[in-house]
Amino acid sequence: MINNRLINTFLDLVKISSPSKNEIGIKNYIYNVLKDYPLEIIEDTTGANINGNCGNLLIKLKANNHSRKKIAFDSHMDTVTPCDDVKTVVDGSIIKSDGTTILGGDDKIGVAIQLELIRKIIENQIEHCELLFIFSVSEEEGLQGAKNLATNYYKDYDAIFVLDGEGIPGTFYHSAPYNCKGKIRVVGKAAHSGVNPEDGVNALYVASKAISQLPIGRINDFSTCNIGFIQGGVARNVVMPSVEMDFESRSLDLHFLQHFIGEVKKTFQDVCSQNGAVFEDELSYGTPGYLIDDKSDVMVKLKNATDAADLSFELMSCGGGSNANVYNSNNVIAVLVGVGMENIHSTKEYVDSNNIIKAYRLVREIVQEYSA
Length: 372
What we know:
The protein is an alpha+beta fold. The protein has ten helices and 17 strands.
């Protein structure tokens, strides 16, 4: 066993199964760890709202110095599956599972860091600005915890730091893409492929003509497009009457994305019209993306904190979504913070325990930066 309370807390957490909407084991662990500390844990009604067994947990530590700043930290209690009966393997500083399950570093690293910070602040009577710690639920299923968290809990905070990022400590994600996704459909006409194929309209053929006119994959430096799943047809000897595809496009530029989606629809509509088919779509825009100015006050403070923690400062763009998207969409600056998780969402997931310790040191310096 590694002789470090933070790491041992992490090792405890990953052994608790907590798939989305079933985070009660982590909730109970948090309550047990903090039961002797003078603080209040608030649980909201999100669990009931999403048919889960646990709500978002919130812990506020009021400022104990002159600082008027308010900052929050966020981590999520749920993980992807398979997460039952996790058996950890510690090889030097590397922590992984035995290969039959995920590890759960996403995001029990963040949970462990928040717990350690709360305990250290109280135990050592560290001066600090007002702090809010959010332990959210169901992040892995559409960011439901953050989306259901009432904004009055955090709307007047200066910044929220989401401890849920890949990459070594010192990595910050200052932007995340907007996205549009859903079903697109080409409806042709069935006919017997060996008797009267000329009376049919092959939906797959029409769809392929439209797809061939679109940029698939990397569109530009800040945008992507993908068709990830396709299904259609009724039998080998029937001209395919319809085909349905799962489509998505992402971009850091909302106006570009909106224009591109318009072009996608027009391309399919024109090709379908020319070939006797009909185009249908169920596309919708997801949680908004965000872009934080590199020279903003929050980035200056993060750079200062990174320097104080003796780490290298790096800004990156995130290709997916996180709770930071939700908070930014509600007009509160939120930054996704790299905490050292690697190969997430797979049975090859691992973390270097040294990076967990470095991430904790960074978070502590962020508190100091805002509390000065």
